């Protein structure tokens, strides 16, 4: 897919949901790569860089578990319009894939709905089974309504009032037969600010008015007291809304027990199979299991960043494989770099290992 687009507009969302699976470049050996002409080599390397940055979502145990939970929530939200549907909220630390999980689940629902019911509603409107918006640090009641309307491409959103925008948002959702509303970055709602309380109240109103399942995602929502039951006064809406939300936690990978080590090992093997490097081999990543865990702390976002940048450098330097020395030249997010020394010390001292035990014969 060439060109820029955003998932916060229906055109971008449709482009993403309808995009065919990327074609994996043909694996070539180092000798075959060296025999390519300069133009062919540049084209091949560019295709590989694009592939490594977008080779698809790995179905980790964490992703599979939350997708199963979300499927259950959406499938059982069959209440009549006079009843409120429950919502789901993915609450996790940064870099664990909560946005990816929310988007990929919503994409699956979108595809299934249009495949079953067609691209047009019974009334002749475009069928949009999903709308998606991302909150900002200054999201207000009006901007939230405007973002929903802008997703659908509704004209005249700049000068309309908050009430008019809210009415248009309801019309868009109903006309397009929308089933899921994805609202990302929920942590930008501040329960201690008036704007935050107004947005929370509005989300409650939307849940009452719209026949959709809301899927929220955010960072540290519990710590921000968005689920607090002891709130009083204007903040009581947070506690009331939390009664309708199912909180889904997304933990990082761990190597503290055998189950965690097997999951980490499985991630490394799955990633290995996706890489297109001239000197790639089975065990290229699994042999570096301890090192990769120490570098990333088990956060899949940090892991994918390290692998993507490492592949780019391996191609650029003609190394064509990922090694300890090559990856050591790659810097990633500061959070991972900060805990690296502590984890490396634990692996060196034998207090941690990422290698699962071999099953008994």
Q: Please give the count of helices.
A: 14
Tell me, rounded to a whole number, the average pLDDT: 89
- The level 1 CATH classification of the largest domain is Alpha Beta
The total domain count is 2
Order of strands across the main sheet: 2-3-4-1-5
CATH topology of the largest domain: Rossmann fold
User: Any idea what the CATH superfamily of the largest domain is called?
Assistant: P-loop containing nucleotide triphosphate hydrolases
| Cα end-to-end separation | 48 Å
> What share of residues are in beta strands?
5-15%
Rg of Cα set:
23 Å
Q: What's the story with the biggest beta sheet?
A: 5 strands, parallel
Examine the secondary-structure arrangement and name the CATH architecture of the largest domain. Answer: 3-Layer(aba) Sandwich
Shape: globular
Structural class: alpha/beta
SSE ordering: HHHHEHEHHEHEHEHHHHH
Features:
single chain; 361 residues; alpha/beta; Rossmann fold; 2 domains; five-stranded parallel β-sheet; 14 helices; 5 strands; 48% helix; globular
What does this structure look like?
This protein has 2 domains: 61-249, 3-Layer(aba) Sandwich (Rossmann fold); 254-348, no CATH class. The longest helix has 20 residues, at 98-117. A 5-stranded parallel β-sheet has the order 2-3-4-1-5. It is an alpha/beta fold and 361 residues long. The chain has helices at residues 10-18, 30-34, 38-53, 61-76, 98-117, 141-152, 162-175, 194-209, 236-242, 258-272, 289-296, 300-316, 324-327, 334-348, and strands at 87-92, 130-134, 180-184, 213-219, 245-249.
């Amino acid at each position: 897919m060439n060109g820029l687009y955003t998932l916060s507009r229906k055109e971008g969302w449709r482009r993403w949901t309808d995009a065919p699976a990327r074609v994996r470049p043909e694996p070539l050996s180092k000798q075959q790569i060296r025999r390519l002409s300069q133009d062919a080599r540049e084209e091949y390397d560019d295709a590989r860089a694009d592939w490594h940055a977008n080779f698809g979502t790995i179905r980790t145990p964490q992703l599979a578990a939350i997708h199963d939970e979300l499927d259950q929530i959406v499938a059982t939200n069959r209440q009549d319009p006079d009843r409120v549907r429950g919502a789901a909220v993915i609450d996790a630390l940064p870099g664990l894939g909560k946005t990816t999980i929310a988007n990929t689940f919503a994409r699956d629902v979108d595809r299934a709905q249009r495949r079953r019911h067609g691209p047009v509603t019974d009334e002749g409107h475009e069928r949009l089974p999903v709308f998606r918006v991302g909150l900002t640090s200054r999201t207000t009641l009006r901007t939230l309504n405007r973002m929903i309307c802008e997703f659908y491409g509704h004209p005249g959103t700049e000068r309309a009032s908050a009430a008019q925008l809210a009415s248009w948002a309801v019309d868009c959702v109903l006309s397009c037969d929308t089933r899921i509303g994805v609202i990302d970055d929920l942590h930008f709602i501040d329960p201690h600010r008036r704007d935050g309380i107004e947005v929370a109240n509005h989300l409650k109103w939307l849940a009452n008015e719209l026949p959709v399942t809301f899927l929220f995602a955010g960072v540290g929502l519990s710590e921000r007291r968005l689920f607090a039951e002891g709130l009083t006064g204007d903040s009581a809406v947070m506690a009331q809304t939390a009664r309708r939300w199912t909180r889904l936690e997304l933990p990082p990978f761990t190597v503290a027990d055998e189950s965690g080590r097997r999951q980490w090992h499985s991630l490394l093997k799955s990633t290995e199979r996706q890489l297109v490097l001239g000197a790639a081999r089975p065990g290229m990543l699994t042999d570096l299991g301890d090192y990769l865990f120490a570098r990333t702390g088990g956060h899949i976002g940090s892991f994918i960043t390290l692998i993507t940048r490492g592949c780019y450098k391996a191609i650029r330097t003609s190394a064509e494989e990922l090694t300890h020395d090559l990856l050591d030249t790659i810097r990633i997010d500061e959070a991972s770099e900060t805990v690296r020394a502590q984890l490396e010390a634990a692996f060196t001292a034998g207090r941690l290992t990422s290698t699962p035990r071999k099953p008994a014969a």
